[in-house]
Specification:
By secondary structure, the protein is an alpha+beta fold. The protein has two domains: 2-34 and 142-226, Translation Initiation Factor IF3; 36-138, 2-Layer Sandwich (Alpha-Beta Plaits), CATH 3.30.70. The protein is built from four helices and ten strands; from the N terminus they run βββββαββαβαβαβ. The chain has helices at 66-79, 116-125, 144-169, 192-195; strands at 2-16, 19-32, 36-44, 46-47, 63-64, 87-96, 103-113, 131-140, 172-182, 212-226. The strands form three sheets. The protein has a four-stranded antiparallel β-sheet. Strands 6-7-3-8 form a four-stranded antiparallel β-sheet. Strand 6 and strand 7 form a beta hairpin. Residues 190-205 have low confidence and may be disordered. Pfam families: SIMPL (PF04402). One of its GO terms (biological process) is DNA damage response. This is Oxidative stress defense protein.
């Protein structure tokens, strides 16, 4: 786990009927190694002539059935150390080519993995003919709630540190906490949407998505005291 703390620039100092206070926002980032990886492979029927390097689309005749493509993919998964019980499948419909042409049926595999090395082996050895997309679907960690707590605490400590040196610079002393507000979607990584849509036939293309990055923001109001 990598934990980084920082702060936003917004600072409020005020004198009200409630007394003098300063309000600051602290931020943090927690980087987590996942222990459950969902990898999505979508296969689709194709015509053998697509890969002969000479046929035009109107000459495509030899359709490779989904069952043959699936057999090859499952063989690759077994060789990569993916057990059958870690594979869920879903039929996702047909693809229409042109008027008068055949439907091309597709299927999606949702693999539950524990190691990115398995993905590397799949990408290196799978026959990409018949592979429509391969992407990381979701990253999880069984201790996520603990990481959420650590991220929020780090953001609070960043807020306290900033408030303390600002108040001390004015010859005052930082008092107790008057209010704490969690900002936005704490714990949700802004990278995750992009990550879940990564298509890949190259292991290097998802190297940047091998960890979960959660961001936290906490606004805290502190009382200002005389020294």
């Amino acid at each position: 786990m990598l934990l980084l703390a920082g702060w936003a620039w917004g600072v409020v100092q005020a004198v009200t009927d409630e007394g003098r206070y300063i309000e600051v926002t602290g931020t943090s980032e927690v980087e987590i190694v996942p222990d459950e990886i969902h990898y999505i492979i979508e296969i689709k029927e194709y015509f053998a002539e697509e890969f002969d390097g000479k046929s035009k689309e109107e000459d495509y005749r030899t359709k490779v059935p989904l069952a043959r493509i699936e057999e090859g993919v499952r063989k690759t998964l077994r060789e990569a150390g993916v057990p059958d019980e870690a594979v869920r499948t879903q039929e996702i419909g047909d693809y229409w080519r042109e008027s008068g042409r055949e439907f091309l049926v597709s299927k999606r595999f949702d693999l539950t993995l524990t190691d990115f090395k398995q993905i590397d082996r799949i990408v290196r050895h799978v026959d990409t003919k018949g592979i429509h997309t391969m992407r990381i679907g979701e990253l999880k960690n069984k201790d996520m709630q603990l990481y959420h707590q650590k991220g929020k605490i780090a953001a609070l400590m960043a807020a306290r540190k900033k408030a303390a040196y600002l108040v001390e610079a004015l010859g005052q002393k930082l008092g107790g906490v008057e209010r704490i507000i969690e900002n936005g979607n704490n714990g949700l990584s802004p990278m995750f949407t992009a990550q879940s849509n990564v298509s890949s036939s190259d292991a290097a293309s998802f190297d940047g998505f091998r960890t979960i990055k959660n961001h936290y923001s906490m606004s805290v109001r502190f009382e200002i005291l005389d020294k």
